[in-house]
Amino acid sequence: MEKLIASDKKFQKAWLFAKLKHQGQKRLTGEDYVCHPLETAKILNSWGLDKDSIVAGLLHDTLEDTETTFEELQKQFGAEVANIVEGVTKVSHIRLKGSQEIEFVENLRKMFLSMAADLRVVLVKLADRLHNMRTLYALPSDKQKKIAKETLEVYAPLAERLGMGEVKSELEDLAFRYAYPKEYKKLVRSAKPHYAKAGKHIRTMRLEMGKALESQSVVAEIQAREKHLFSLWNKLKRIDIEGDFSRINDIVAMRVIVKGVKECYLSLGLIHNTYKPVPSIGISDFIAQPKPNGYRSIHTKVFGPENRIVEIQIRSKKMHEEAEYGMAAHWSYSEDKNSGEVSSEDLEKGLPKPSDKLNWVRQLVAWQEELNDSQEYLEAVKFDALNHRNFIYSPKGDVYDLPEKATPVDFAYRVHTQLGNYIQSAKVDGKMVPLDYQLQSGQIVEIIKSKNPRMPNRDWLASVKTTVAKREIKKAVQTVG
Ligand code: MN
Fold first, then answer.
1. N- or C-end of the chain: fewer Cβ atoms within 10 A?
2. Which residues in the chain show pLDDT less than 70?
3. How far is CA 312 from CA 205, 250, 291, 309, 447, in A?
């Protein structure tokens, strides 16, 4: 028997139950159907999730594909497991945007509702999708394409939003070859010599860095990581890259994993002593200043062999686990539940820190009651939840995540709706900018406050990107008429 199953009585019970219920069912790969829930459970286990999630993983298709009832699950495995399985079943038919847009929006609504109730629903769903993507080769090609696009549009961004970088990259690369087969093949061919050349440099660096770290008794695991194909493809399309491989520094990046925070900084010193850091690009210290999704690491760029610029990430073991599995690694959602509002006192003292990583889920759930128009809701979801995020800093060093092309007005409303009502002007990196300025990741934004509250400007609606800003501006403008 599987080691995982053998390790726990409840797992054994769920495994026998699933086997019995799925008896006779086959997957298109030719295997018994029950292999799929087993693999899903193994993925959840590898993310370090709790027993109920793993049990729910084993049972996740019983409600949908077998005669099993909710009551039966509840009686046999408890209410939590039954609720997770039911939630997974409800969100299991997310349709692509297009002819069935209303259905797509409906399903996103359902997904966010169940996420707000129990994040584990979405984690089980992600594990389910990951295994389905790993076995996508068995499906007919029209289905492959559809599922792959849906993965790129919904599940990969969702994984990113939950801080699960590794899962996001794997989903994207699995989907890439089916969603854009021609482009995929072309990229694999053209990237090959570039990966090979970078790989050679990295092997040299690995030895040299190993020696440097050893000289101060720093125990480190040094990894070389090839950039994932899908993100390479996207980067090559950028205007500043123009398809030129030589402009991509991180085609192979290095990662140094050490014991603790102290060793991170010690390693940074030793590495810079071995290779000169690239001055203009500089170091990002996400340990002193974590990203809003909790990501911690030190990033630096150095001149490696033949003056190749190489990116190096330094992190502790714990940070590494968190970066790979994000929310799943510390999904203590219940603890976060009560930390919502910001007091005006906090606002006076400075800018409040966004402590609650899942606020955006709750916001989307709240808005779905207001935004009756499904088009409007879809837009809100796309910008607020599934879009790529930029990290913007306040002058005090607090960091906020905002969608691409967000403006200082978005920033103000993101910090607090009250701050939005005092916007006079804005500075970015110390310089005055117009209020429709499009912010870029890493910039520092200072909102110059007016003495008294001001009416938001109706024209701001044309440039703001976030739902919260749009909503507050509209509300204020409407009350005056
Ligand atoms: Mn499934």
1. C
2. 1, 92-111, 114-116, 293, 326-388, 480-481
3. 11, 9, 17, 10, 34
Fold (CATH) for 2-175: Hypothetical protein af1432 (1.10.3210)
Distance 29 CA to ligand 1 centre (A): 14
Residue ranges with CB less than 5 Å from ion ligand 1: 61, 128
Q: What is the number of alpha carbons within 13 Å of residue 135 lying toward its C-beta?
A: 16
pLDDT value of residue 95: 53
DSSP lists the bridge partners of residue 316 as 258
pTM of the model: 0.73
Which tens digit of pLDDT belongs to each residue from 281-326? 778 999 998 877 678 999 999 999 888 889 999 999 988 887 877 6
For ligand 1, the distance from its centroid to the CA atom of residue 452, given in whole angstroms, is 56
How many residues comprise the chain? 481
Tell me, in angstroms, the distance from the centre of ligand 1 to residue 174's CA: 17
Catalytic residue selected from 32, 64, 86, 436? 64
What are the residue boundaries of the structural domains of the chain, listed by start? 2-175, 181-350, 388-479
Q: Is 472 a catalytic residue?
A: no
Distance 380 CA to ligand 1 centre (A): 28
CA of 61 to the centre of ligand 1 (A): 5
Instruction: Using the structure block, give the residue that is written with the tokens 């030719």.
Output: 30
Yes or no: say if 467 and 380 are a contact pair by the CB < 8 Å rule.
Answer: yes
Does residue 119 contact residue 358 with C-beta atoms inside 8 Å? yes
Question: Would you identify the CATH topology of the domain 388-479?
Answer: Ubiquitin-like (UB roll) (3.10.20)
Considering the candidates 8, 32, 65, 285, report the single residue annotated as catalytic. Answer: 65
65 assigned to active site:
yes
CATH number of 181-350: 3.30.460.10
State the alpha helices, DSSP H only, in 305-401: 317-329, 333-336, 344-349, 359-370, 374-381
Instruction: Give the pLDDT confidence score for residue 448 in this predicted structure.
Output: 93
Separation CA 239–CA 330 (nearest Å): 37
Nearest 5°: CA angle at 311, between 383 and 221?
A: 110
**Gap from CA of 86 to ligand 1 centroid (Å):** 12
Tens digits of residue pLDDT in 158-206? 888 777 888 999 999 999 999 999 999 999 999 999 988 888 888 999 9
Query: 111: CA distance to ligand 1 center in Å?
Result: 16
Distance from Cα 42 to the centre of ligand 1, integer Å: 13
Amino acid identity, position 15: W
Q: Which helix (H) or strand (E) holds 301?
A: strand 298-303
Asked whether the beta carbons of 449 and 423 are under 8 A apart, the reply is yes
What is the full DSSP assignment across 409-472?
HHHHHHH-HHHHTTEEEEEETTEEE-TTPPP-TT-BEEEEEPSS--PPPGGGGGT--SHHHHHH
